[in-house]
Amino acid sequence: MLVNDSRMTFCGTLEYMAPEMVMGKEHAFHVDIWSLGILLFELIHGYAPYKGKNLNDIAKDIMKNRLHFDSCVSEPCRNLIKAIL
């Protein structure tokens, strides 16, 4: 795969989608890295970082990209997740 091989596909679970996918923009392998960050957050916390009452609310929360960590999460772990996202 080429580094700048972009796609316009829209598939997957919304909670794991990167903002560019949510907005319907072209995207590349970076969206997979984003999903890894979401998975890491979820493995540590037990829930996905972006929430809402419906899919529209979840999409809006993804676009804001504000993370709220539990107080027990170490600073290095927070920094890693923030860097990935």
Please give a quick description of this structure.
Helices cover 47% and strands 0% of the residues. The chain has four helices and no strands.
Architecture overview:
The protein has a single domain, classed as Transferase(Phosphotransferase) domain 1 (Transferase(Phosphotransferase), domain 1, Orthogonal Bundle), CATH 1.10.510.10. Helix 2 packs antiparallel against helix 4 (75-84). The model has no long low-confidence stretch (mean pLDDT 84). The radius of gyration is 13 Å and the shape is globular. The chain has helices at residues 19-22, 30-45, 55-64, 75-84. 47% of the residues lie in helices and 0% in strands. The protein starts with 18 loop residues before the first helix and ends with a helix. It is an all-alpha fold and 85 residues long.
What are the SSEs and their pairings?
Blueprint: H1 19-22, H2 30-45, H3 55-64, H4 75-84
Helix pairs in contact: 2-4
Pattern of helices and strands: HHHH
Largest sheet: none
The tally of beta strands, per DSSP, is 0
**CATH superfamily (homologous) name:** Transferase(Phosphotransferase) domain 1
The radius of gyration computed from the alpha-carbon positions, rounded to a whole number of angstroms, is 13 Å
Q: What characteristics describe this protein?
A:
85 residues, mainly alpha, Transferase(Phosphotransferase), domain 1
